[in-house]
Amino acid sequence: MPPVTALLITLFAPLLTAAGIAFFFRRQGGVASALSVGAATLLCVCAFIAINGRGDATLAASCDWLSLGQFKVSMGFLFDDVAATMLAMVSFVGLLIHIFSLGYMKTDKARARFFGGLSIFMFSMMGIVLADNLIMIFVFWELVGFSSYMLIGHYLETDEAKAASKKAFIVNRIGDLGFLVGIVTAYWHFGTTDLAAMEALTLGHPGLVNASIAAFLMCGFIGKSAQFPLHVWLPDAMAGPTPVSALIHAATMVAAGVYFLIRIVFLFPAEVLDFVAWLGTAVAVYAGFCAYAQNDIKRILAYSTLSQLGYMAAAFGLGYPGVALFHLITHAFFKALLFLGAGSVIHGCHHEQDIFKMGGLLKRMPVTAITSAVGVLALCGVYGLAGFYSKDAILIAGGLGTTPIFFLLTLGAFLTAGYMGRLFWVAFLGAPKSDAASHAKESPLTMVIPLIILAGLSVVGGMIQLWPESLGGLIRHDLDHLHHAEGYAAMHHTVLIFGSAAWVIGLLAAFFFYGAGAKEDRLASKVPAVFGFLKARLWFDEIYGFYVAKIQDRFAALLSFLDVFLLKGLIVRGSAGLVTLLGLGARALHVGNVHAYVYWFLGGLLLFWAYAGGLL
Amino acid sequence: MFETHATLLLAAILVPLLAGVVLAFGSGLSTGLRRGVALVGFGFPMLAALLLAFRFDASLAGGYNFESKLATGLESIGIYLHLGLNGISLPLFLLAGVVGFAAGLYAIFSNTERPHLYLALMLFMQGGLMGTFASVDIFFFYFFHEFALIPTFIMIAVWGGTGRRAAAMEMTIYLTLGAMLSLLGLVALYVTSGAESFSLPELRAYLAAQPLSETLQSNIFALLLFGFGILVSLFPFHSWAPKGYAAAPTGAAMLHAGVLKKFGLYGLLQIAAPLLPAGLAHWFPWLAWLALGNIIIIGLITIAQRDLKLMLGYSSVMHMGYAFLGIAAFSVVGAGGALLMMVAHGLSVALLFMLSTCIYHRSLTFDLKAMGGLATKAPVLCAFFVAASMASIGLPGFGNFWGEFTIFVALAETEVTRWLVLPAALGIIISAIYGLRAVANIFFGSPRAEFAARLENDAIKDVQAFEKAPALVLLAALVLIGGFPRLISDRADAELAELYPATESLPHFETIAVTPEMETRKETH
Q: Testing the interface with A: which of B290, B481, B489 to mutate, by most A Cβ within 10 A?
């Protein structure tokens, strides 16, 4: 099969599946889930056929989508090394999560809608991965936003899902506003939004790189990757089913923001790159602190995702897009693993999500517990596991670039180990703290097998030398670049020491502070002020909530009142009133008395005569 | 001399009128026969429009496809029943056909009082709509619009909801004022051009040869802008719209908001802007600021609405702001964006008005705060409403996205309009807020107490076939334009290039072969 055909299948198979489910199998959850998983399998197979068929070449194919005067949009593929790497990860992790969902969603009454949503998501995500121009990226960008909306709102009868889905979509739209302005400005600035063409232009004319265009486009990333100040939607998005959190809100969609930056790295001048680096660093540390005050296993992981996205942004901003991509891929493995592990726990504990009501799960759910442990260690960056290689590279890049960023990111690594340790020790060790936890059973095979495979990837996925030659070109290139940078050897040692110290101390500190299978949060009971401060998360949600309810909605209500009162009441009614008044006045003249009419007539005649005679 | 396609065009106007006459006098017809006649009356224009769209030859730009010219007895002042379609009118002609069919289908199978009269009025409207967009002659362009407007008033006054008399009254006065102003403008155009003809191409040729003075252009343009503006609910002349639509029966709301309202925009796009460019340039700041008023002020007002139908009415006013901005950009891109926006908005707003009635039949209220959780009882209705809301807030995959996006691109083209992009794009956030709030309040979450009691009641059913069919027709059209915008743009592009100035804003760079030296520079980047 020619690679372009294979790519077309990867793109459209899930769309057709979703349409088929919507029209024909809305009520047959079993058929729908089989179809959706089948499409995910086909997609994965075709993705790897395309990756093999590509070799080292960059495949490009496009067709016209819209043409009006000077405005031309095309729809096409830019299948280069970066796209191939991303495609491999998205299609494979996506397939595993589809399989996991078979077990997790087995008893859900809206299973067909769920699997249809997953298929729409895969279609939209494929579009972002393969798109060859900004406008096409934007189209699919909004579509992943919609699928995310649909899947966060899956449990639509709950008020939590209702609010969270709406919030996610609207907050993303705020980021998309900047993205949109960036695209339309870029179109007239470069004369195209084609990625390859823009890259060639900026190479030939470095003066074309424009900070404001880059900054506007970056807004899209801030929304989608939930960076400060638009990060508020991601923790709430955990209201969706856990496989959705794993697929969309950890491994793929939120990372698409970083992927987008990597695709347009040539548009970024140094000052915007610096900004991204600092932004990412700030989020990495901020989210790390927030995670300590969360008891819901999924929300802890959500803050961890925010923090890791911050690491990716930092790597990108430090000038190593390949390293950012590397962390994106390894993070997808271990974070999908951790979320699916959480899903397995939640499934086992009958939808209990509070880690302080779990405990003792290592005995009752050994596979889930051990694979989750692998995920925790990989996330902490334990030597030899996937997270080690990518995080190590980011810290080195930070150390070679900006010292404060290096220390902040190291602090972030320490925080990571601490809150992951808290999660693991409290939820998996000790004795069960609730009925649900004491009756927990290991999950079925469809859920356990993806866990084992992802655990395997979390162990070996970081060894880039094991990757097939056709993948990870940019990663190899940037790592190589990093290894040959001045002062690499010394920095490498520093980072090894600091990085290892961070996870060892973090995990141990968490163990001794919280204790295995703790019943309550010691931080909350011993130092409530600190816990309360962390739980408030710098009051972002409160500030936004205040703005929406007290400013925006009141202003809207005031405008609405003025609209009815002024425009309708005074002006429209007022002019109607004026006409009525004139009518009344005119009617008053019609007194119905012949004498009066004679006087009117005489008066008129006088007026006429005066006018004609030039007196008036 | 009659050519088949020209006959078809004429028939697309006459068939619904004839069907309307049959039904108006057909109180004795059986239900089946009544439905059959109405179905023919609504179905034929759509089929004709689709066939003509396939046969349309875009290379005739500047002229008309399927032309025919009938004497009317008014030849002495240059009035003929001159029909034809060009790249701008064809998409709207199609819109009228599709929305008319969907609205008709819904009306035929839903229960109304005195259905034969209701359907007859709708068919008269339909005939007028088809005629408006098929007229080459601006006299008939105006005449058909008025012809379609009168049944709207009657339908609101007779079949409307609460406050129908006042709404019909206000709408009548307001729209008549707008129509009068635009008529004055059209007549002024006829008189001052010296063409002694109401035929648009002749006027165009005359004005191209001897353009009017700038003062004259801006005076006539003002009449047309505010006349048409009132008809399209340009801020602050919008107050008739939300109230009128809230009171209107479904069929009238679908046809008026969906199609008839586009008359004003069509007049600006096809007649006012190309014929009076200096007038548009003069009034540009007014148009731009008022259109921003539509988007931002009306957008915020939409957020504050608690009544579903008022909310839809305001949102429809808001979206007109984009179309005005597209026209204000005065370029092929802007006009094309406005055209796409008009078509897509017509489809989506008709769908939303129809679905709001479907919701009302289940909730017995339009109060958004009194509903909730309807999705558990009516999942398919929920899916339709979510899709229609997403279309209306400009989600890609639906036609509205291309309209909005193209307009933003057009605004970014020159320095004059670039400042408008950011404030206008605020609309994508505003519309997301009210659109998703409505969806969430109606369908998701836990229902309010009284509504919960009603939801318990098993009488609430999901959408029925007669609701599903028209919704699918409209949704299919929206998705088709969203996926293949060239269906519209390819037919309009050449015509727009004839009417709007060719700008050369795209930058040109000499092509530079990438040298190895540049590759290394890229690597050290």
A: B489
Mutate to test the interface with A, among B230, B404, B444, B481 (most CBs of A within 10 A): B444
Q: Quick check: A580 contacting B, CB < 8 Å?
A: no
Task: Please give the DSSP secondary-structure letter assigned to residue B296.
Answer: I
In this structure, what are the phi and psi dihedrals at residue B65, rounded to the nearest 5 degrees? -85, 155
Secondary element (H or E) of residue A275: helix A270-290
Are the Cβ atoms of B506 and A203 closer than 8 angstroms? no
Q: In angstroms, how far is the first alpha carbon of chain A from the final one?
A: 95
* Residue B498 identity (one-letter amino acid): E
Would you tell me which residues 50-79 of chain A have a C-beta closer than 8 angstroms to some C-beta of chain B?
Answer: 64-71
pLDDT (tens digit per residue) in B210-254 = 888 888 899 999 999 999 999 999 988 888 888 888 888 999 999
Across the interface, whether the CB atoms of B401 and A184 are under 8 A apart is answered no
The pLDDT score that the predictor gives to residue B524 is: 47
pLDDT tens for A381-390 read 888 899 999 9
In B, which residues are within 8 Å of A187 by CB distance?
409, 412
CB contact (8 A) between residue A555 and residue B497: no
- In terms of average pLDDT, the best of A454-458, A467-471, B172-176, B200-204 is A454-458
Q: Give A-chain residues touching B336 at CB under 8 angstroms.
A: 68-69, 71
Three-state SS for B62? coil
Could you report the per-residue pLDDT of A506-533, keeping only the tens digit for each? 999 988 888 877 788 888 888 888 888 8
Question: pTM (2 decimals)?
Answer: 0.92
CB contact under 8 A, B375 and A481: no
Residues whose CB falls within 8 Å of the CB of residue B377, separated by 6 or more in sequence, listed in order: B362, B455, B460, B461, B462
Place of tokens 């540049």: B518
Task: Give every CB contact of residue B72 below 8 A, 6+ residues apart in sequence.
Answer: B79, B80, B81
Mean model confidence pLDDT for chain B: 89
| A113 neighbourhood in chain B, CB within 8 Å | 379
Q: Which candidate, A523, A502, A349, A296, places its Cα nearest to that of A415? A: A502
Nearest chain B CA: its distance from A26 CA (Å): 10
8 Å CB contact of A163 and B440? yes
Within an 8 Å CB–CB cutoff, is residue A373 touching chain B? no
CA B310 to chain centre: 18
Structure tokens at A492: 């490498």
The secondary structure of B309-333 as a DSSP string is: HHHHHHHHHHHHHHHHHHHHT-SHH
Rounded Cα–Cα distance for residues B165 and B338 (Å) = 33
ipTM of the complex: 0.93
* Range list of H helices, B135-247: 138-159, 164-193, 200-209, 214-231, 240-247
Inter-chain residue contact A204 with B518, CB threshold 8 Å = yes
CA distance B505 to B482: 26
Burial class (CB in 10 A: 0-12, 13-18, 19+), B363: buried
Report chain B residues whose CB lies below 8 A from the CB of A150: 386
Distance CA B286, CA A281 (A): 46
* Band of pLDDT at residue B525, cut at 50, 70 and 90: very low
**Two tokens at B28?**
């004795």
Residues of chain A positioned with their CB less than 8 A from the CB of B243:
568
Cβ separation B405–A180 shorter than 8 A: yes
Contact B456, B447 (CB under 8 A): no
Instruction: Specify whether the CB–CB gap between A210 and B454 falls below 8 A.
Output: no
